[in-house]
User: What shape does this take?
Amino acid sequence: VVVETRGRIRDSFETYRAEGRFPQIDVPVVVLVNEGSASASEIVAGAVQDHDRGLVVGQPSWGKGLVQTVYNLSYGAAIALTTAKYYTPSGRLIQRDYTSYFDYYTHADAGTPEMLGKTVREDEIFRTDLGRKVYGGGGITPDVIVENDPLNEFAQFLLARNAYFTFAVDYNRRNPVKSTDWKPAPQVLDEFKKWVISEGISPAAEVEKEFADAKLQEQALTQIRAEVLNAVSGQEARHRAFAQIDKQIQTALAQFDKAAELYAQRKLLDQKDEERADTAAAAEATSRAPRG
Assistant: This one.
């Protein structure tokens, strides 16, 4: 089972299964989620987690588990009516509480009830195939929670002004980069600071004050590298540059030994299930065999 839908009428109850048409992926799996992961991505992450087929890493997902049916109205309008909700294979509700639209939209109440310190009844606790506890009603809570380092206000300001992008394009025009292995030397950061001042983006005193922060220096050099590589080789090179300092991605890459252990337990469970099925089939065949 991959996902189930449940609603008020009989037709809304549906079970969707993997049909076995695709070859099995015989490798450990790690799934990354964050508050931007919604709907279909939560269904996949929940199924992987419930069946102990991989580790989920990152931040609690959005919690969008509504099935909506669109009905056309006059004058080109339409209404999207919620007709059911999505549930993971263990029975967890994916949908997050949205009685407070503000909290729902801002993600202020992100996470399942136990994460938020709420009382959880026994019937609200679910189990994966291997017996691990999981909870519903708040998206998918990762097995390994990793918060990304937030950008400070000055870094956000520079991004909003497209400072890194504009500087990178100008820098690459003056100093053409040929290789995706390129990394900016420390003096490039000095050049960037002077450029920010000369362009009137921020005064010298503020630039020197803000860039005294070593974290901002690291982020700035990564931003410059990513934008230069984007100009040279495209979006994939840009994403690779950011991935090298992305705490969630780097943590996920370090989880494959743990994911391999989980997969080994999953395979052992499958073997036991197959043995039980074979034993049951043999017993049934024996009972049906004609007596001499």
The two ends are 43 Å apart (CA to CA).
